[in-house]
Design brief:
little secondary structure; 1 helix; about 5% helix; globular
Length: about 70
């Protein structure tokens, strides 16, 4: 059996879903434009450091929280 994940489910991938580099609805991101490695997708690697095979130095960066405007700011 293959270890390749074939179905994207946003409720999985604990690291990627919280990262601002994720290309939503895909298995790719700015750090891994071809495909995010399984060790990151399944949460075994928190991607706090670039992988040896990575072609850039991007790492996990939390998504910026959207501010909720108060009535005065609207």
């Amino acid at each position: 059996m293959s270890d390749i994940i074939v179905d994207y489910n946003p409720y999985f991938f604990p690291v990627c879903n919280k990262c601002q580099h994720l290309n939503g609805g895909t298995f790719s991101c700015k750090a891994f434009p071809e495909r995010i490695p399984n060790e990151i997708l399944d949460g075994d690697n928190d991607h706090s450091k670039p992988l040896p095979t990575q072609k850039n130095d991007l790492v996990f960066t939390p998504k910026k929280k959207k501010s909720v405007l108060s009535r005065e700011e609207e």
